[in-house]
């Protein structure tokens, strides 16, 4: 049973406790609102201002679980706050742990401050949950995938177009890294896990994956420097740093270039060019990675 009064009050309190800079939004001039405006929350939650406003006024339809999850993420709620919001809306809270897609407020606050840097939050299976604008400009929008294709490891072995963004000399290492990483997660999560399902799909669909999987490699990692091949500005050498959220098994990946190098200049150019139209250049049925 939905608690409309409790839901409305909780949303108002959380909205009023946040400032634009807390969620990566510009403050602007002549701001008089205490906390965020309703239209700003709606933007963060990917819903209409009218829909959100009705929730705060104890009106409107019963929000779905997907809608509540989007609001919880947009308001940068902690796991406890997220679970409380779900219960107020009359839903059981989602499962916590490895399969959770709720990004912690701490990681979000860091990500929000990296507007001039390619960065992304990924799951332990390489599913991109959120990217910075420059991250989208570098690799395309990786959050739009559904099903098994959400995992970069799955796309690597099943979609040839995925590899176009990475230097050909590094492809063999990428294959070993993705197979090794998946084996680690399968062992950790067990035979009934989503990781095990991806393993079975890849064994059935990729001859290369079967060959690499038979090597039983564990702990294979990428080099600190990754080489990307962008369709408009060419090759970039970027250093990848990772920040782990051990509770959610999420990683924040940040890509930087050494100042004064050609890659640094290209990264600055990329911030002006914006996201490439990778879909237009891909063969039918293939997508960017």
Automatic annotation (TrEMBL):
From which domain of life does this come?
Bacteria
Q: Which InterPro entries match?
A: Cro/C1-type_HTH, Lambda_DNA-bd_dom_sf, MLTR_LBD
Which PROSITE patterns does the entry link to? HTH_CROC1
A molecular-function term among this protein's GO annotations: DNA binding
Q: Where is the HTH cro/C1-type domain?
A: 35-82
Any idea what this protein is called?
A: XRE family transcriptional regulator
């Amino acid at each position: 049973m939905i608690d409309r009064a409790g839901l409305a009050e909780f949303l108002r309190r959380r909205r009023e406790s946040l400032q634009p800079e807390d969620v990566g939004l510009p403050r602007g001039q002549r701001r008089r609102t205490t906390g965020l405006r309703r239209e700003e929350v709606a933007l963060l939650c990917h819903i209409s201002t009218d829909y959100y406003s009705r929730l705060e006024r104890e009106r409107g339809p019963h929000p779905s679980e997907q809608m509540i999850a989007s609001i919880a993420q947009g308001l940068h709620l902690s796991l406890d706050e997220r679970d409380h919001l779900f219960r107020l809306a009359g839903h059981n809270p989602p499962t916590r742990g490895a399969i959770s897609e709720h990004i912690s407020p701490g990681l979000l606050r860091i990500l929000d401050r990296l507007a001039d840097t390619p960065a992304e939050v990924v799951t332990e299976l390489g599913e991109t949950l959120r990217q910075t604008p420059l991250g989208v400009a570098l690799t395309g929008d990786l959050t739009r995938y559904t099903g098994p294709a959400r995992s970069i490891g799955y796309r690597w072995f099943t979609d040839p177009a995925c590899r176009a963004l990475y230097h050909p000399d590094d492809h063999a290492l990428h294959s070993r890294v993705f197979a090794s990483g998946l084996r680690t997660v399968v062992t950790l999560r067990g035979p009934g896990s989503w990781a095990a399902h991806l393993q079975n799909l890849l064994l059935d669909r990729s001859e290369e994956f079967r060959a690499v999987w038979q090597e039983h490699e564990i702990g294979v990692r990428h080099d600190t420097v990754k080489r990307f091949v962008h369709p408009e500005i060419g090759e970039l050498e970027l250093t990848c740093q990772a920040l782990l959220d051990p509770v959610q098994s999420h990683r924040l990946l940040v890509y930087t270039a050494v100042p004064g190098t050609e890659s640094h200049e290209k990264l600055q150019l990329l911030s002006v060019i914006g996201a490439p139209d990778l879909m237009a250049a891909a063969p039918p049925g293939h997508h960017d990675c």
